Amino acid sequence: MYGIKGISGKVAGFFRLSGELSYFAGRYFTEVWKPPFEIRELLHQCYNVGNRSFPLVGITGFIIGLVLTLQTRPTLQEFGAVSWMPAMVGISIVREIGPVVIALICAGRVASGIGAELGSMRVTEQIDAMEVSGTNPFKFLVVTRITATTLMVPVLVIIGDVLALYGSFLIEHLKGNVSFQLYFNQVFDSLEFSDLIPATVKTFFFGFAIGLVGCFKGYYCTKGTVGVGTAANTAVVAASMLIFILDFIAVLISDIFYEL
Amino acid sequence: MNKENAITPVFPVGKGKEDVVIRIKDLKKRFGDNHVLNGFNMELYQGENLVIMGKSGSGKTVMIKCLVGLMQPDSGSIEVMGKDITKLDRKALDLLRADIGFLFQGSALYDSMTVRENLEFPLRRHKERFRDRADTETLVLEALKSVGLSHTTELMPAELSGGMKRRVALARTLIMNPRIILYDEPTSGLDPITAKEIIELMRIIQARYRTSALIITHDVDCARVISDRMILLVDGINYAEGTYRELQRSADPQVKAFFK
């Protein structure tokens, strides 16, 4: 009896949370078109999300390229298919590994940061102070951050992809003496617009999800400093889960288009 | 502990009904089963310093948050300068809020902004209000000078002491040239000397800017020095009302407990 109650409570909690998150997203789409537009704050947030995440994303992307090539090379060598390496790495990085891994890194770096920052502003009454001063805190804090992550995560993914491909090229160059031109010609020959467009479009959704969850958790933070920690932590977990769910949906949709 | 035990309210000398700047009638607010405000009534007169005292959890902060529209009451009316704030739309409420300064308990300075930016922030939404006044720079310096901190413009809130933060928060309130100032525990968390300085500053400000003030405090010294009139809030109702001296002489055990 208790078990059923517990499960139904959790299911109800999940649907309530989903409803609240959907309402929060709806409020974003209502507010984003209304003036005043906080351009200065938006640029500041773009700088925060983009510039400050760049070193982490760059290093991670580069290492992914190195490791992927090093791990795959012996197997391809066994089948005499090393010449397929640029195409294989290119497709896997551009279509799947790059967007998902970079988005997960951004979830860890950005969603937790936003959750903790807004959470701390909530518990120290800074958001209330903004409201009392006549500024709409949702517009100033939430709309700018969600827009910034939606715009900057795709840019970070492109940078990460480029560095991953460069890392892969370095290994190929060292181990197989492949030239830069040959390597990248093979990469781009293997890629089509049908690979690039869905992969790029889904990164906007990943960015939106990261900003949305981070802001939602921080904006409604309660229970003092413990609540701030919880907001940061749950923001990362929820954003990561959302990224996987969105990726699954994106793959399903692009598969439908492939079949047409 | 019922209303019959309460001391007869004192009508402030020289003030008539036309001078009322805030009128709260039968205010009720509950959170689940917790009835925080049970029909609170209050009038604040032009130029008056009204102190509201009560134990923790007696509903003081909830009342003051309802007063600026940060919380919606369950029932009752709140008139600020003749306007019922529970019925105002967002734009009208923001305009009215420009006339109300709010000093938060923890100062609520924006951590990511300098002192100058903290003071400039409320001006952004009310530019038309300051068309005839000096430029922003002069307003900021003027407000900081009035709290004795004109040298702190480029400092971050983290670089200020507790007392300095409270002063800067007061300057941020004053920059809007409000007609009413709401103080939420203005001396809490401060050492006795700094607390006295803040109380003195409140007196100076009241004399210079001719504001009406609603002060929520536990600090009996603060109430003695600053109050024209006091209300004791017990279990969500105005239990006793009068001048400091009248309440101090009260034989009611609940009232006496505050002055021990």
TrEMBL record, chain A:
<protein>
    <submittedName>
        <fullName>ABC transporter permease</fullName>
    </submittedName>
</protein>
<feature type="transmembrane region" description="Helical">
    <location>
        <begin position="53"/>
        <end position="70"/>
    </location>
</feature>
<dbReference type="InterPro" id="IPR003453">
    <property type="entry name" value="ABC_MlaE_roteobac"/>
</dbReference>
<feature type="transmembrane region" description="Helical">
    <location>
        <begin position="234"/>
        <end position="258"/>
    </location>
</feature>
<keyword id="KW-0472">Membrane</keyword>
<keyword id="KW-1133">Transmembrane helix</keyword>
<keyword id="KW-0813">Transport</keyword>
<dbReference type="GO" id="GO:0043190">
    <property type="term" value="C:ATP-binding cassette (ABC) transporter complex"/>
</dbReference>
<feature type="transmembrane region" description="Helical">
    <location>
        <begin position="151"/>
        <end position="171"/>
    </location>
</feature>
<feature type="transmembrane region" description="Helical">
    <location>
        <begin position="203"/>
        <end position="222"/>
    </location>
</feature>
<keyword id="KW-0812">Transmembrane</keyword>
<dbReference type="GO" id="GO:0005548">
    <property type="term" value="F:phospholipid transporter activity"/>
</dbReference>
<dbReference type="Pfam" id="PF02405">
    <property type="entry name" value="MlaE"/>
</dbReference>
<dbReference type="InterPro" id="IPR030802">
    <property type="entry name" value="Permease_MalE"/>
</dbReference>
<comment type="similarity">
    <text>Belongs to the MlaE permease family.</text>
</comment>
UniProtKB/TrEMBL annotation, chain B:
<dbReference type="InterPro" id="IPR027417">
    <property type="entry name" value="P-loop_NTPase"/>
</dbReference>
<dbReference type="Pfam" id="PF00005">
    <property type="entry name" value="ABC_tran"/>
</dbReference>
<dbReference type="InterPro" id="IPR003439">
    <property type="entry name" value="ABC_transporter-like_ATP-bd"/>
</dbReference>
<protein>
    <submittedName>
        <fullName>ATP-binding cassette domain-containing protein</fullName>
    </submittedName>
</protein>
<keyword id="KW-0547">Nucleotide-binding</keyword>
<keyword id="KW-0067">ATP-binding</keyword>
<feature type="domain" description="ABC transporter">
    <location>
        <begin position="22"/>
        <end position="260"/>
    </location>
</feature>
<dbReference type="GO" id="GO:0016887">
    <property type="term" value="F:ATP hydrolysis activity"/>
</dbReference>
<dbReference type="GO" id="GO:0005524">
    <property type="term" value="F:ATP binding"/>
</dbReference>
<keyword id="KW-0813">Transport</keyword>
<dbReference type="InterPro" id="IPR017871">
    <property type="entry name" value="ABC_transporter-like_CS"/>
</dbReference>
<dbReference type="InterPro" id="IPR003593">
    <property type="entry name" value="AAA+_ATPase"/>
</dbReference>
